[in-house]
Write a structure and sequence with these properties.
With 324 residues, this protein is of the alpha/beta class. Helices cover 33% and strands 15% of the residues. It binds NADP nicotinamide-adenine-dinucleotide phosphate and 2-keto-D-gluconic acid.
């Protein structure tokens, strides 16, 4: 940024939690960077105009904003932004951006891997082999994906990338969202309960937050039924975790594949004990290439804003705050 006197002044930004090395390096060559996990003096916080946020940092809300009087923009490292108190950000007139689109294919790949791994019991089969059990017998026959009807809860960017892949698996597809999508030919169900009743797999990929909290509850799991499989790659808050543990323990559903949890990185012991659950540590987008692309998109949003251009991917709640 060039000041009226002709000097170059780099905007100061606060990085909320550690990011990939390539992202940190680009941030440091572009901005004056403060790391929230190190002690940042109040006089430096007062100069901070941008924030690089991520799901790894808690407390991006009112109390933090009060310490950042010059803050203009929060660029989130991730498409989901339930880690940011969006109402508080709007009250403060802050622009919030995310990494929409850049990770759709990667997360969809992982979702298919988790679905197949859960149904065909891949983790258990590998544990069986490594334990030497194959020497004395065959691994038990698994359930199948054949003949299944798959309900996608949240047919957005990632949900559609999942559906495109599933089209090659010769399975039936249906979906639930708040709205029927005119360009989509798969059947729409107006409630998640109706979708669960009609399907025997639910793939959950909606945003987290208050409106989707415990969307998947005991009643939905009961509707999914004893041959039912739940795959959650959205946010842990979307599933009632206690109800899920009970459903897995009681045979209310057959199995679950989870990438996300209510209190990450803590996974409840009761869930760890469920042998019919495949549990991944929130790795949907976690490839080197995709995390670097997410970092670059986050930086591109900050650069555009500080150059006086519109950010690339503002979230819907803050679009009205943009000039023009
Ligand atoms: P998106 O394009 O905005 O799509 C979200 C979909 O959810 C839309 O189709 C929307 O349809 C539906 N939806 C929103 N609110 C809903 C509600 N209250 N009830 C029912 N459906 C609702 O988002 P995306 O890019 O696909 O990402 C979705 C989420 O995936 C993210 O927000 C994030 O939490 C999660 N995610 C996880 C990982 C991972 O590593 N596991 C990686 C990336 C993203 P309607 O508007 O018609 O309701
Ligand atoms: C990341 C995600 O795990 O984009 C999201 O919403 O959940 C994932 O891509 C996360 O954002 C990285 O902190």
């Amino acid at each position: 940024m060039i000041t009226p006197g002709g000097a170059t002044v780099r905007p100061e930004i606060l990085v909320a939690a550690p990011l990939p090395a390539v992202t940190m390096a680009t941030l440091e060559s572009t901005f004056t960077v403060h790391r929230w996990w190190e002690a940042v003096p109040d006089e430096a916080l007062a100069r901070v105009r941008g924030m690089a946020a991520s799901t790894l940092a808690d407390g991006i809300g009112e109390a933090l904003f009060a310490r950042l009087p010059a803050l203009e923009i929060i660029a989130n490292f991730g498409v989901g932004y339930d880690n940011v108190d969006i109402a508080a950000a709007v009250r403060r007139g802050l622009i919030v951006t995310n990494t929409a689109g850049v990770l759709d294919e990667e997360v969809a790949d992982l979702t298919l891997a988790l679905l197949l791994g859960t149904v065909r019991r891949l983790s258990a089969a590998e544990r069986f082999l490594r334990a030497g059990a194959w020497e004395t017998g065959s691994f038990p026959l698994s359930p199948t994906l054949r003949g299944r009807r798959i309900g996608i809860v949240g047919l957005g960017g990632i949900g559609k990338a999942v559906a495109r892949r599933l089209a090659g698996f010769a399975v039936d597809i249906a979906y639930h969202g708040r709205h029927a999508q005119p360009d989509v030919t798969w059947p729409w169900y107006p409630s998640v309960h109706a979708l669960a009743t009609a399907c025997d797999v639910l793939i959950v990929i909606v945003p987290g937050g208050a409106t989707t909290r415990h969307l998947i509850d005991a009643a939905v799991l009961a509707a999914l039924g004893p041959d039912g499989v739940l795959i959650n790659v959205s946010r842990g808050s979307v599933v009632d975790e206690s109800a899920l543990v009970a459903a897995l323990d009681n045979g209310t559903i057959l199995a679950a594949g989870l990438d996300v949890y209510a209190d990450e990185p803590h996974v409840p012991d009761a869930l760890l004990r469920c042998t019919n659950a495949v549990l991944l540590p929130h790795i949907g987008s976690a490839s080197v290439v995709t995390r670097a692309a997410m970092g670059q998109m986050m930086i591109d949003n900050l650069v555009a804003w500080f150059a006086g251009r519109p950010p690339l991917t503002p979230v819907p709640e803050t679009r009205h705050l943009l000039p023009g």
